[in-house]
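C-alpha cells in:
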C-alpha cells in the first residue's frame, strides 16, 4: 500500500501546478492528522475490515497527498465518481465517516420505549384472547401500533412467536461421565484402535407413489403426489468410522439382540485383527442383553462407550443417517423391500468411495458450558413461575 501511495504521490507532484480547477464544482481538500493516518492504516491492515472500507481508507490517504482524483481512480481501479464522492465526504466530515451514510426515508414514529414494550410483551406474556402465542394483529391491537410495525420489530430482533423448537434434557444419572467418555474418545482416540459410531435406523419403509413424479423444469420444482403405497419395511445397522468417514452397513428384517450380534460379527470380520474396536452407541435395550455381554467377553478387543439417554446428537452416525435420508430416502421409490435394501446398500457403497468424516470439535467442558447457557433461562423461568 505504501508503494502505491508513493507512486501516486510522485505522479501528483509531477503534475502539481499544471492542473487548474475548471467549472463551478468546488475543490475539496482532505487534510489528515497523524491520528487520522494511523486510523486509516489500521483499517487497511485489518483482515476483517470490509473491502469497501479499505478502498475508502486508501482514497483518503492518497487525497491527503494531493493525488489527482483521476490518478486515484486509476490506482485503485474504481470510478472517478466514487473517488469524488468520498473525497468530498472526508473533506466535510472527516475520516470517521468510512461507513455508509444513513439511508433517506421517513423517520421512525415509535421510540425505544415502545419497542422495548413490544419485545417484553412478546417474550413474557400471552394474548388476552387465550391464544397460545402472539400474532402481529393481536400484538398491534394491544400495543397501539400497526401490524407492519410489529412485524418489523420482530424481524429486527429475531422474534418468531409462531415457531416452536423441541428439546429433551437427559435424565441419565451418569450424564457427566458419559459425555466426558464419548467426547474424550472423539478428540483423543486411542492408539492402535478404531472408533466406530454404531446405531440402527429402524422401520425404513419401501414406498412407491401412487402416481408418477413430475420432473423439475425451469421455474417449477420436482412434483410428486402426497399419496403413496407401502411395500414393507426394513432395518439398517451402520457403523461409522470416525477417522475416515467410511461406514459398514447391514440390512436386517428385525432389530433384536441377535441381529445386533450378527452386525458385531460383521464388524469383527472387517476390522483388522490387530486393532482395538471402540464402539459408541446408545442405551437401546438390545445393546445390553446377556447374550451381548457374553459376546463381548469372547471378543475382548471390543469396548462399548454409551452415550447419555436422550443424547443421540453425541452419536456421529446419526449425521450419516440424516445424509442418507435427505439425499436418498426422501425422494426414492421402491416397489419391494429387496429393492429398498439394494438401493441403500448401493448408496452406502457410493459414500465409501468418497467418504466425508464428521469432525468433532467440542470438549466435554465446552458442551457443559453451552448447555448451561441454554438451560439457565429455562430454569430461571420455571423458578419464577413456581414463586409466582
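Residues out:
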Amino acid at each position: 500500500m505504501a508503494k502505491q501511495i508513493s507512486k501516486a504521490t510522485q505522479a501528483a507532484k509531477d503534475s502539481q501546478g499544471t492542473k487548474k480547477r475548471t467549472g463551478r464544482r468546488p475543490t475539496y481538500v482532505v487534510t489528515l492528522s497523524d491520528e487520522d493516518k494511523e486510523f486509516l492504516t489500521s483499517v487497511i491492515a485489518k483482515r476483517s475490515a470490509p473491502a469497501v472500507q479499505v478502498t475508502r481508507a486508501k482514497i483518503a490517504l492518497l487525497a491527503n497527498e494531493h493525488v489527482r482524483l483521476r490518478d486515484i481512480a486509476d490506482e485503485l481501479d474504481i470510478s472517478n465518481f466514487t473517488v469524488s464522492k468520498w473525497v468530498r465526504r472526508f473533506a466535510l466530515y472527516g475520516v470517521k465517516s468510512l461507513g455508509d451514510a444513513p439511508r433517506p426515508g421517513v423517520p421512525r414514529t415509535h421510540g425505544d420505549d415502545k419497542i422495548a414494550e413490544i419485545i417484553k410483551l412478546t417474550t413474557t406474556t400471552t394474548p388476552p384472547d387465550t391464544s397460545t402465542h402472539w400474532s402481529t394483529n393481536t400484538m398491534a391491537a394491544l400495543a397501539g401500533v400497526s401490524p407492519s410495525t410489529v412485524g418489523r420489530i420482530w424481524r429486527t430482533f429475531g422474534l418468531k412467536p409462531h415457531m416452536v423448537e423441541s428439546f429433551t434434557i437427559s435424565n441419565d444419572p451418569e450424564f457427566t461421565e458419559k459425555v466426558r467418555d464419548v467426547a474424550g474418545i472423539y478428540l483423543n482416540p486411542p492408539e492402535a484402535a478404531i472408533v466406530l459410531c454404531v446405531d440402527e435406523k429402524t422401520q425404513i419403509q419401501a414406498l412407491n407413489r401412487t402416481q408418477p413424479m413430475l420432473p423439475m423444469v425451469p421455474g417449477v420444482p420436482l412434483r410428486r403426489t402426497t399419496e403413496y403405497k407401502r411395500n414393507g419395511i426394513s432395518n439398517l445397522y451402520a457403523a461409522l468410522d470416525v477417522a475416515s468417514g467410511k461406514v459398514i452397513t447391514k440390512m436386517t428384517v428385525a432389530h433384536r439382540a441377535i441381529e445386533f450380534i450378527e452386525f458385531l460379527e460383521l464388524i469383527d470380520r472387517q476390522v483388522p485383527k490387530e486393532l482395538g474396536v471402540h464402539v459408541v452407541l446408545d442405551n437401546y435395550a438390545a445393546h445390553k442383553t446377556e447374550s451381548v455381554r457374553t459376546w463381548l467377553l469372547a471378543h475382548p478387543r471390543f469396548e462399548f462407550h454409551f452415550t447419555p439417554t436422550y443424547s443421540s446428537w453425541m452419536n456421529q452416525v446419526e449425521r450419516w443417517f440424516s445424509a442418507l435420508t435427505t439425499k436418498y430416502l426422501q425422494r426414492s421409490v421402491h416397489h419391494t423391500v429387496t429393492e429398498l435394501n439394494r438401493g441403500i446398500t448401493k448408496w452406502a457403497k457410493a459414500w465409501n468411495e468418497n467418504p466425508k468424516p464428521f469432525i468433532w470439535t467440542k470438549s466435554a467442558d465446552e458442551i457443559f458450558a453451552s448447555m448451561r447457557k441454554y438451560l439457565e433461562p429455562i430454569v430461571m423461568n420455571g423458578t419464577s413461575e413456581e414463586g409466582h
